[in-house]
Amino acid sequence: MPRSVSYKNIILMAVLVAVTLLVMRFTQVGRAHLTPLEAAIKDSLSPLQGGLTRAGETVNKGLGFFSSLGRLADENKALKQQVDQLKGQLYLQEELKQENRRLKELLQYHDQYQRNFQTKVAKVIGRDPGNWFGMITLNLGQKDGIVKNMPVVTPSGLAGRVVAVSDNTSQVMLISDPRSGVGAMVQDTRVPGVLEGTTAASGETRLIDIPKDTNLQRGQVVITSGIGGTFPKGIPLGRIVGVTNEPTGLFKTATVEPFADLNRLEEVLIITTVYNPDIVPSTEGG
Question: In what residue span(s) does the Rod shape-determining protein MreC beta-barrel core domain sit (predicted)?
Answer without folding.
Answer: 124-271
